[in-house]
Predict the structure.
Amino acid sequence: MRSNAVIFSILCLVAGLATQAVAERAGGAATPAAQATDADPVKVLVDRLDLEKYKATIKGLTQFGDRRQGTDRNRAAVDWIEAQLKSYGCPTERIKYVYDPPPPAPGRGNAGGRVTTGLAPGGGRPRGVRTPTGVNTDPMKQPDAKLRALNMPPTTPGPREEVYCTKVGTTHPDEMYIVSGHMDGHGWGEAANDDGSGTAIVMELARIFSNPDVRTERTIRFALWNNEETGLNGARAYVAERQALQGKENPPGSGRYPEPTWLGMIQHDMMLFDHGAPRADGTMSREQRPEADVNVEFQANSKFAAQSQALAWALEVANDKYATDYPASVGSHMTNTDSTPFMEVVAAISVRELERGTQVGNGWDPQWHQPTDVFTTYTDQDFRLGLNAAQTTLGAVATLTGATLRK
Ligand SMILES: [Zn+2]
C-alpha cells in the first residue's frame, strides 16, 4: 500500500536524522554548529533563507490590504504572487472554481464547540484565561484611513482563482509534497500575519528550491490557497478537482505528471506571534515569549493520523537540526485550516505560531482577524518565529525530497 510505503519512508528519515545527530554528538563533532556542515546541501539551502527577504515578501503582500476573497484587491494579489513565483523560475498554474456562498445563518455565535463539549475545536482541552475572539466587521475600527479605503470594496460571489507553482523531481517526478498557505484575509487590517506570514514562507521556499543549482528527486508544489477564511473553499476545490488525477502520466509516455501522487501536505497559517497566554486582566505581553515555539499539528481523529504524525516528527527533527532560534512542538489537534480537506486522503499537517484550537481559539493572538493585523504591529522577534518555521519546513522538505546541489 502506498500509505504504508510513505509512513515507512518518513519513519526511516526520522530514524536516519536522529541516528546521524547521535553519531555526530558521540563522534566528537567539535561544536554544535558542526552538526550540519557546509557539505550538507540541506543546510546550504536553509542558509539561503533571510529575515529581511521574508519580511519584504510579507510587506509586498500587505500592499493589497486584507486581500479579501472576491474583490479586485484579492485578484491583484493573486496576480502579484504569480509574477513573483515566475520571477523565481517556478512555473505557475491556476485552479479555477466558483464561490457562491449561502446566506449567513442568523445568530451564529463564536462558541467554537467549547460550550457544549468543554473541548476546543480540534479536540484539545483549553486551559487558563480565555479572551474573546471573532472577526472584526467594522471599518471604522481601522484608524488608517488609506487602508480603510483600500479594504472598502465588498466581496461579490462568483468565479475565483488561486495559484500554485511546481518544482519537478528528477528521479520521482510522479511523487509530490505540497507546501501551502492561504493568501486571503479579512478583518480590516493587512492580513500580515493571517496569512501573509504563511504565504511568504511558501513563496520563499519556492524561490530557494527554484535556484538553478537545486535538484530534488521528488516533486514539490507550492500552493497559495484562496477562500480559506470562508471555509477552506480554495483547498477544497483543489482536492475536488485534482485528487483523481494523482500519479497519471499525461500525455502517456511523456514523463509528465500534471498531478503527481501526494506524499504529504504541509500548511502554514499565522506564523509570527507567540506572546503567551492572556493574563487574568485580559492583557498580553508585548514581547515574543522566550519559550516561543513552532507548533506542528496533525489530527488524531483523521484517517491518515499515523502518516500525518510521522510527517510532523520529520519537521520536529528538521527543526532540531536546522532552525536557529525556536524549537518545534508536535500536537494532535489540527483544525480549521487548509490541511483539513487533505487529512482523509494523505499525510497532512499544519504549522502555526500557536495551537489553533486551544491557544489561538482562547485569545492568545489578539490581532487575529482584527484591524491590528498590520505589518507594523510585529517586531523582528515576531518575524523571526516565522523564519524559524520556514527553516523547519525547508529542512524537512529538502530532506524528504532528496535535495542536492549541482556544483
Ligand atoms: Zn484567518
